[in-house]
């Protein structure tokens, strides 16, 4: 069993970190520019997890599907890929912040699917283990906001 509690407190971006994307609007405003479905699987990795994301793991995480946000500040560890769109029970995702979290606040997920459908969820405990309730299958672009930080990523849900 893998257990991770809380967020990482490692320092900011280091060498090789992904460049910061241009600012984005909330998901509900981005519906006019849908996500291209080919983008969803591009960032999925099964390589060893970065050192800053290993809290709670008793191995290097190799084989565990994970996606790093576009800014490199938040990682979604999905344990299965693609995750399941289940609006009632959700799907398990471990969110790991690379940035310091001094005052925990909810992790807010604003999502837009390739066809413009939107979803919103607030995870009251912030980054950490969660049950994400995406309402339907498809390629979703997630705008993730937590403790004064924002990152984006694309995930395919089945």
Automatic annotation (TrEMBL):
Compositional bias segments (type: Low complexity): 25-34
Pro residues bias (residue ranges): 12-24
Organism (species): Actinoplanes cyaneus
Taxonomy, superkingdom: Bacteria
Protein name per its UniProtKB record: Uncharacterized protein
Disordered: region residues: 12-38
């Amino acid at each position: 069993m893998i257990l991770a509690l809380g967020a990482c407190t490692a320092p900011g971006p280091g060498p090789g970190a992904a460049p910061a994307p241009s600012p984005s609007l909330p998901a509900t405003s981005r519906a006019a520019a849908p996500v291209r479905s080919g983008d969803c699987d591009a960032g999925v990795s099964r390589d060893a997890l970065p050192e800053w994301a290993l809290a709670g793991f008793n191995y290097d995480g190799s084989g565990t599907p994970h996606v790093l946000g576009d800014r490199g500040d938040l990682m979604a560890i999905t344990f299965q890929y693609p995750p399941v769109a289940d609006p009632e029970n959700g799907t398990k995702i471990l969110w790991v912040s690379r940035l310091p979290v001094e005052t925990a606040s909810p992790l807010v997920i604003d999502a837009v699917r390739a066809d413009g459908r939107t979803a919103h969820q607030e995870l009251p405990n912030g980054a950490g283990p969660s049950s994400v309730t995406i309402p339907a299958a498809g390629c979703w672009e997630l705008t993730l906001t937590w403790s004064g930080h924002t990152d984006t990523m694309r995930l395919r849900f089945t």
